[in-house]
């Protein structure tokens, strides 16, 4: 299948305010909330999200689980646990790639047409932004070439530097 580049979009702003079918949460292994994007999503979704997450028994690094979006404008939240950067020799690249693949597989399985990803692992987990952007862009491109759903994937950046990394990565692969 030919990839229409309109299916991958860059959005600078707050992921919790996006009107998409699903947003991806860069979660920790407990799925019980934390800092950064994870904390913002839990606060915006309301206390019912925490109650559902308690029933999921956590999530291994590189995997993904889905919940309702509760008070968010999105119907679903896909929680994925990215790797903590340890210098690049501990399988971090493959674990990060798996986060994108597993999240996209859930989106396909739940017939989610629009999905928004934050820059997984690039905050407190310390994954180098440009390296993470290349992995994100290549995994999304590869998945969309083989699948009709999701129809649109947003790569969300929280600032100009993050957007610069994503734009550079996309220009290399598209």
Automatic annotation (TrEMBL):
PROSITE patterns linked: MACRO (PS51154)
Entry-linked Pfam families: Macro (PF01661)
SMART domains reported for this sequence: A1pp
Protein name listed in UniProt: RNase III inhibitor
GO molecular-function term, one example from the UniProt record: deacetylase activity
Domain Macro: 1-174
InterPro entries associated with the record: Macro_dom (IPR002589), Macro_dom-like (IPR043472)
